[in-house]
Amino acid sequence: MRLVILGGPGAGKSTQAQQLCTSLKIPVIDTGETLRRAIAASKSETSVLSDLGRQVEPYVMAGELVPDPIMIQLIRDRLLQTDVTTGWLLDGYPRTAFQAEELDFLLEDLGQQLSWAIFLEVSNPVLLNRSLARSRVDDQPDIIQRRIELFHERTVPILEYYEHRDRLLRVPGDQLPENVTQAVLPKLH
Ligand code: AMP
After folding, report:
1. Whether the predicted pLDDT of 46 surpasses 90
2. How far apart are CA 2 and CA 88, in angstroms?
3. Would you say residue 123 has pLDDT above 80?
4. Taking the CB of the first residue and of the last residue of the chain, which one, N or C, has fewer CB atoms within 10 A?
5. pLDDT (0 to 100) of residue 15
6. 155-187 pLDDT per residue, tens
7. What is the residue with the minimal CA distance to atom 2 of ligand 1?
8. 170 phi, psi to nearest 5 deg
9. Are 10 and 131 in contact (CB under 8 A)?
10. Could you tell me how far CA 77 lies from the centroid of its own chain?
11. Residue 75: CB within 6 Å of ligand 1?
12. Model-wide pTM > 0.90
């Protein structure tokens, strides 16, 4: 099973990613978490990870999107690793139409196919309140607003891309996490 999970900041992507990956026994690849780890590493060590951290920090801390070439390379390297040959769930990727197309090209190269893109539908006020309730470094009020704005501008167009390919599952995300998971699981085939 190869899945993508889409939704605004605070839509519940990471919570659902964890639940679904446990049920389906597939690894989760969380780009936001990878970038935050790289930024943390850049404060204390010298490694490939800390180089990445230095490169992406200005974007992540401002709530802006990291440039596509950096993200595409990151995902290419990750999907070539041996622990993800039989399946995965991408949390936070793709974020732009260009990334979605590049993901398809990459999968074609690897002889793989995306099973589903799951979209967690949540209203803007709920996205804002849920993000404010977290305490991540990039969850400051003005940064959250920018991330919500970018979600509508850059990520929502991807829905059409997957809908057109009959790969999109829309799920109301404004309900208890366990109900969201139960709504998704039977649809994955
Ligand atoms: P997330 O934890 O998924 O909300 O991501 C946190 C931050 O990481 C975002 O606000 C972006 O700055 C960056 N980021 C994560 N994934 C991507 C991506 N696919 N493309 C561009 N930037 C990303």
Report:
1. no
2. 5
3. yes
4. C
5. 96
6. 999 999 999 999 999 999 999 999 999 999 999
7. 32
8. -95, 130
9. yes
10. 16
11. no
12. yes
Question: What is the 31 CA–ligand 1 centroid distance (Å)?
Answer: 6
User: For residue 122, what are the CA distances in angstroms to 24, 77, 93, 152, 156?
Assistant: 24, 31, 18, 12, 12
Confidence of residue 77 (pLDDT cuts 50, 70, 90): very high
**172 - beta bridge partners?**
121
> Separation of 61 CA from ligand 1 center, angstroms?
10
Strand spans (E) along the chain: 2-6, 28-30, 88-91, 116-121, 168-172
Give the residue carrying structure tokens 């790969």. Answer: 167
Tell me if 65 CB under 6 Å of ligand 1: yes
Cβ contacts of 19 within 8 Å, gap of 6 or more: 177, 178, 181
Joined together, the tokens standing for residue 178 give: 């366990």
Q: How far apart are CA 87 and CA 20, in angstroms?
A: 12
How far is residue 129's CA from residue 156's CA, in Å, rounded to a whole number? 20
140 pLDDT more than 90: no
Helix (H), strand (E), coil (C) string for 130-160: HHHCCCCCCCCHHHHHHHHHHHHHHHHHHHH
* pLDDT band, residue 4 (cuts 50/70/90): very high
Contact status, residue 60 vs residue 138, Cβ threshold 8 Å: yes
Instruction: Give the N- to C-terminal CA distance of the chain in Å, as an integer.
Output: 9
Dihedral class, residue 65 (left if φ above 0, else alpha if ψ from -120 to 50, else beta): beta
